[in-house]
């Protein structure tokens, strides 16, 4: 097989409740991507510590659910490195070093930090503030060429590049400068009832969100009640400013059917919003039926999942350690004689 030269890194925070937004912008692409690139897919469990969880929340369950979903979506551990962040301690080590390169002023400017902290009435943990620096460590450890993300992560990738440049300039070149890798269609899927905000797994109103493991009847009801507009006669046209709800449905349909928005608009000329919603549901059903079936097969084989996680961590550690050794060398720290 041809050696793949370009490294692509991507990660998702583990919550078994991954959404159609996660699927459309990143997960869905990984199956094909791994044939072309050297792919490293991480389950960012350390990141998920930053949000407060319900009392009965189980990290282990959530991590294994996410791993099973990766596999169900076509990630192949023989083609890609699939691993869990906390099993590769180099992430936490580099995180500290990069923290000392990151300015507080940079972190408080991050849009995601501002949005998330607005919702928190009481005390804010500093993990939420330092979150983008841990992301930078994830990416830079693997000499990543391309970071595959949705639009909401763009600012964090810009910070990652700045930190890499800052470190390389002060201490000598260690890190490759990663580029953002984002697909044009579907990099920001909006909430169903409030299409001016992003669909998010942590949304308190579950009617805003379609989950990958959700019951299909539930999904149908959610799509049926999603916000469109009151144009009469109805106009099925993409206009993210004037028709954000409808445009979101068109994006979902386009991304999942791989038909262009133009083709879809043409097909739905003179048709009703309900007909469009039915079609959106049908395409979601087509994707999720397969995923859910495979998910349960993988999820029932816990020892297989755990073995994949450990094998992936071994492979990831080799690359991560090499970068970190170079970091310590450039910093002028003592050389480690043992692992
Ligand atoms: P997370 O878990 O919030 O989301 C995972 C990926 O899904 C994308 N995404 C969306 N795309 C389109 N529409 C949406 N509504 C939507 N919601 C989420 C996100 O942009 C992301 O690409 N911090 C990251 C995880 C992470 C990471 C990394 C990513 C940790 N380390 C290093 C890349 C590189 C996060 O919380 O993503």
How do you describe this structure in short?
The protein contains 12 helices and 5 strands. It is an alpha/beta fold.
- Known CATH architecture of the largest domain: 3-Layer(aba) Sandwich
Number of domains: 2
CATH-wise, what's the superfamily of the largest domain?
HUPs
Low-confidence stretches: none
Main sheet overview: 5 strands, parallel
Span of the ends, CA to CA: 32 Å
The amount of beta strand, in percent, is 5-15%
Largest sheet strand order: 3-2-1-4-5
* H and E order: EHEHEHHHHEHEHHHHH
Are any ligands bound, and if so which?
Answer: tryptophanyl-5'AMP
Q: Work out the helix count.
A: 12
Kindly provide the name of the CATH class of the largest domain. Alpha Beta
Summarize model confidence as the mean pLDDT.
Answer: 95
Count of extended strands: 5
* CATH topology (level 3) name of the largest domain: Rossmann fold
Give me the Rg, rounded.
21 Å
Structural class: alpha/beta
Question: Quaternary state, please?
Answer: single chain
Query: Approximately how much helix is present in the residues?
Result: 40-55%
**Judging from the principal axes of the Cα atoms, what is the shape?**
globular
Description:
Strand 1, helix 1 and strand 2 (38-43) form a beta-alpha-beta unit. It contains twelve helices and five strands. 52% of the residues lie in helices and 6% in strands. The longest helix is centred in the C-terminal third of the chain and has 30 residues, at 302-331. Helix 3 (90-99) packs parallel to helix 12, helix 8 (216-224) packs antiparallel against helix 11 and helix 9 packs across helix 11. It has 339 residues and is of the alpha/beta class. The protein is globular, with a radius of gyration of 21 Å. The protein has a five-stranded parallel β-sheet, sandwiched between helices. The protein has two domains: 7-182 and 301-331, 3-Layer(aba) Sandwich (Rossmann fold), CATH 3.40.50; 206-296, Tyrosyl-Transfer RNA Synthetase, CATH 1.10.240.10. Bound molecules: tryptophanyl-5'AMP.
